């Protein structure tokens, strides 16, 4: 009896204490030996303080495997192996992609070197510059090499990183975004920066030639990405970072050209929070539908019924590790679809009931199998999808309006026939047999 | 020798850190039509932007300048980019400009053959054109050149799934119009017309004044009552009942009706036979 209550309570307590991400707290860090773990101590200890369990592994180690018996062993994988050309057999581009389909999140760092991971980036709609061409910027004037760049943080996708962050130090490669709405740009390059392998001013002609016809193109300007997320249909998140140094302790503390602390530490934490499904994670708890003035969902609905559709949404709160009702979406839409949407209408939040979104609408006068569909996709947010099938039938034989004024003559005719029949029956049965008695009288008199 | 190098190294280091700033010499833009007639030609200034430039569909914009050090010697910087930026749409295009070793640069924008780096444009928003000059040895230079109106281009291609990431236009179902009813007055007139034969009937009955002496007789009244109940049942069917209910109630009612009818008719037969 007690166990029934205590076990879930304890389980709830355990998850409350440890899990910070909505999808689990085990993290595998694949760290190449060239990178010193201590140089990323602030980033990693920040994750551990949040409650993540970090497991480290070199790219050529065989254990722990990322996939065992086709089952993902970790909730999140950090790939800090930007220069490793050969990985152990379980880390392949295919296995990384299959991790995403198993709701495992990836944080992947790149470098100017060509590696298997470098070539995988194009599958995520990122076009990388040719190997060996890091991002350089001569702006602003500073003492650092041109490849170490302070990048102002502009909000490309809202709410992924904190607002008003100080510029972050970056060193690595830019990438061009292909036309894919699943991409979530997080940090874009400064407008003055470009990818180049030149180290002196004499490389100027090579830059122009690259941009000319027949060259490999020019990766330049503020439309290039430095940090980009990718959210496939399953809801897992993959984040590509152009250079691993932006997570290093050195860049966390390096003073900005104008003085002041860079935003790297907060930026790295924000990027990890988004990637590990802590922030901007939504879900649909339940949906319900019924006729107006009823509360029970109908098995079937009739054409022209007034229908009420409601959805309950939650957002994950990483601070309390709990799902909380969320009413912050103003632009959600509901579709009532049979092959094509017949009705598409706004699904606004209900004031006073947190997390509830509701709309009332008149069912179309076409019968068939319809679906209530919510398909809410916005960059950076979890994609929400819900589909509920309901049959919409024409009125039953007695479901049509009666006592129409146009039919009054018919009603009157039918009723008067009935009344007439009753009256004649009564007259014939109970009436005086006058003819018979008259006949009798005459016979008597005769 | 070694001491000389030791002296030189810090000097070199200082020299490495941005020896001098770069400036532009005689920057100038020219707009000419396709038949080479000059439409507008003005020098550019670092301090004051000229009024916005407008290019027609076949016009040619030419920008020329020379990058020089402070001493007036031409240099070739590492980065000489023209940045076309649409502040409204956020679209941006970067076009590198070839600079000769003597620092001379010439950029031509022929609208008959626009370069691929040009961002998609609309007729209403100007492109902000900036010159970005970066170098490993000189201070960087960024200059606002002018605003440029270009003929509207094709919009940027859109991914087929892109609309589902934005608010989509609402869809309203077009309902069939409600069926129309004739005016109630006309219905009432025709209903009255249907009732009219009753007037004739009741009027004629007035002449013969029929009487019902046997109505309350115990053999006749039950039959008339059950017939009335049948009519009532049918009326009730019309107002409220379903077919199954009517069949059930009708079957139940038919038994007393049969009995009462048999009784009534045989009584009547006896009456008539007795009289004869």
Write structural notes for this entry.
By secondary structure, chain A is α+β, with helices and mostly antiparallel strands. Chain A has 9 helices and 24 strands. Chain A folds into 3 domains: 14-275, Rossmann fold; 282-393, Macroglobulin (MG2) domain (Immunoglobulin-like, Sandwich); 405-445. In chain A, strands 1, 2, 5, 6, 7, 11, 12, 14 and 15 form a 9-stranded mixed sheet that branches. Chain A has a 5-stranded mixed sheet with strand order 17-24-23-20-21, with no helix packed on it. Chain B folds into 2 domains: 18-153, Immunoglobulins (Immunoglobulin-like); 186-275, no CATH class. In chain B, strand 5 and strand 6 (92-96) form a beta hairpin. Classes of the chains: A alpha+beta (446), B alpha+beta (276).
- Secondary-structure class of chain B: alpha+beta
Roughly what fraction of the amino acids of chain A lie in strands? 25-35%
* Subunit organisation of the chains: heterodimer
> What ranges of chain B have pLDDT less than 50 throughout 5 or more consecutive residues?
1-17
What is the typical, i.e. mean, pLDDT of chain B?
A: 86
Low-confidence stretches of chain A: 1-17, 437-446
Major sheet attributes of chain B? 5 strands, mixed
Q: Report the major sheet of chain A.
A: 9 strands, mixed
Strand content of chain B: 15-25%
Count of beta strands of chain A: 24
Strand order of the largest sheet of chain B: 3-9-8-5-6
Topology record:
The complex is a heterodimer of chains A (446) and B (276).
Chain A: H1 2-18, E1 26-31, H2 41-50, E2 53-57, E3 67-68, E4 71-72, E5 76-80, H3 93-101, E6 105-109, H4 116-120, E7 126-127, E8 135-136, E9 149-151, E10 168-170, E11 175-177, E12 183-188, E13 194-195, H5 204-211, E14 224-230, E15 238-241, H6 249-253, H7 264-275, E16 282-291, E17 301-302, E18 306-317, E19 322-325, E20 333-338, E21 340-346, E22 356-362, E23 368-376, E24 384-393, H8 408-430, H9 434-445
Helix pairs in contact in A: 2-7
Chain B: H1 2-16, E1 23-32, E2 38-43, E3 53-54, E4 60-68, E5 79-86, E6 92-96, E7 104-110, E8 127-134, E9 141-149, H2 184-208, H3 221-239, H4 243-275
Parallel strand pairs in B: 3-9
Antiparallel strand pairs in B: 1-2, 1-4, 4-7, 5-6, 5-8, 8-9
Helix pairs in contact in B: 3-4
């Amino acid at each position: 009896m007690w166990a029934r209550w205590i076990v879930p309570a304890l389980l709830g307590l355990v998850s409350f204490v440890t899990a910070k991400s909505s999808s689990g707290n085990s993290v595998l860090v694949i760290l190449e030996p060239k990178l010193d773990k201590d140089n990323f101590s602030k980033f990693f200890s920040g994750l551990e303080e949040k409650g993540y369990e970090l497991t480290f592994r070199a790219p050529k180690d065989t254990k722990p495997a990322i996939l065992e018996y086709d089952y993902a062993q970790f909730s999140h994988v950090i790939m800090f192996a930007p220069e490793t050309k050969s990985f152990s057999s379980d880390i392949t581009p295919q296995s990384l992609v299959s991790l995403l389909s198993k709701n495992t999140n990836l944080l992947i760092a790149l470098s100017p070197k060509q590696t298997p991971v470098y070539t995988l980036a194009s599958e995520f709609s990122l076009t990388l510059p040719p190997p060996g061409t890091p991002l350089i910027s001569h702006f602003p004037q500073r003492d650092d090499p041109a490849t170490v760049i302070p990048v102002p943080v502009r909000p490309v996708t809202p709410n992924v990183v904190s607002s008003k962050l100080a510029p972050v130090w970056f060193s690595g490669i830019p990438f061009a975004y292909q036309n894919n709405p699943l991409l979530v740009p997080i940090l874009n390059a400064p407008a003055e920066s470009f990818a180049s392998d030149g180290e002196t001013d004499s490389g100027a002609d090579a830059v122009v030639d690259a941009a000319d016809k027949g060259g490999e193109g020019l990766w330049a300007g503020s439309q290039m990405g430095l940090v980009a997320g990718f959210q496939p249909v399953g809801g897992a998140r993959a984040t590509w970072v152009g250079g691993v140094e932006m997570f290093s302790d050195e860049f966390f503390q390096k003073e900005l050209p104008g003085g002041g602390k860079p935003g790297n530490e907060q930026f790295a934490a924000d990027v990890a929070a988004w990637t590990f499904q802590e922030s901007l994670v939504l879900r649909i708890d339940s949906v319900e539908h019924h006729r107006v003035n009823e509360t029970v969902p109908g098995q079937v609905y009739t054409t022209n019924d007034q229908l009420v559709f409601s959805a309950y949404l939650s957002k994950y709160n990483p601070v309390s590790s709990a799902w909380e009702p969320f009413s912050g979406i103003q632009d959600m839409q509901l579709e009532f679809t049979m092959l094509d949407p017949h009705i598409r209408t706004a699904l606004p939040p209900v004031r006073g009931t947190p997390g509830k979104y509701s709309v009332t609408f008149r069912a179309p006068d076409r019968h068939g199998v319809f679906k209530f569909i919510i398909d809410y996709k916005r960059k950076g947010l979890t994609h929400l999808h819900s589909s509920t099938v309901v049959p919409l039938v024409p009125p039953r034989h007695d479901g049509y309006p009666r006592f129409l004024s146009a039919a009054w003559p018919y009603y009157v005719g039918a009723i008067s026939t009935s009344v007439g029949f009753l009256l004649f029956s009564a007259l014939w049965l109970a009436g005086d047999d006058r003819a018979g008695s008259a006949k009798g009288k005459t016979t008597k008199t005769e | 020798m070694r001491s000389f190098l030791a002296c030189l190294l810090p000097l070199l280091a200082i020299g490495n850190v941005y020896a001098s700033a770069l400036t532009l010499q005689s920057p100038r833009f020219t707009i000419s039509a396709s038949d080479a007639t000059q439409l507008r030609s003005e020098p550019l200034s670092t301090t004051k932007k000229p009024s916005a430039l407008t290019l027609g569909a076949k016009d040619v914009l030419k920008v020329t300048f020379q990058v020089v050090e402070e001493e007036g010697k031409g240099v070739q910087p590492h980065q000489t980019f023209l940045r076309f930026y649409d502040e409204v749409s956020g679209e941006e295009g970067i076009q590198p400009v070839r600079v000769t070793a003597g620092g001379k640069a010439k950029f031509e924008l022929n609208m008959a053959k626009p370069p691929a780096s040009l961002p998609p444009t609309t007729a209403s928003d100007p492109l902000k054109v900036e010159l970005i000059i970066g170098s490993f040895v000189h201070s960087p230079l960024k200059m606002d050149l002018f605003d440029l109106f270009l003929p509207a281009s094709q919009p940027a291609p859109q991914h087929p799934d892109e609309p589902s990431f934005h608010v989509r236009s609402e869809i309203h179902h077009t309902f069939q119009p409600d069926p129309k009813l004739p005016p109630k007055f006309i219905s009432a007139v025709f209903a009255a017309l249907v009732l009219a034969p009753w007037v004739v009937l009741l009027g004629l009955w007035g002449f013969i004044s029929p009487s019902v002496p046997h109505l309350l007789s115990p053999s006749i009244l039950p039959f008339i009552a059950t017939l009335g109940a049948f009519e009532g049942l049918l009326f009730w069917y019309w107002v409220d009942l379903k077919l199954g209910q009517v069949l059930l109630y009708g079957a139940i009612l038919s038994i007393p009706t049969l009995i009462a009818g048999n009784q009534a008719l045989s009584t009547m037969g006896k009456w008539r036979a007795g009289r004869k």
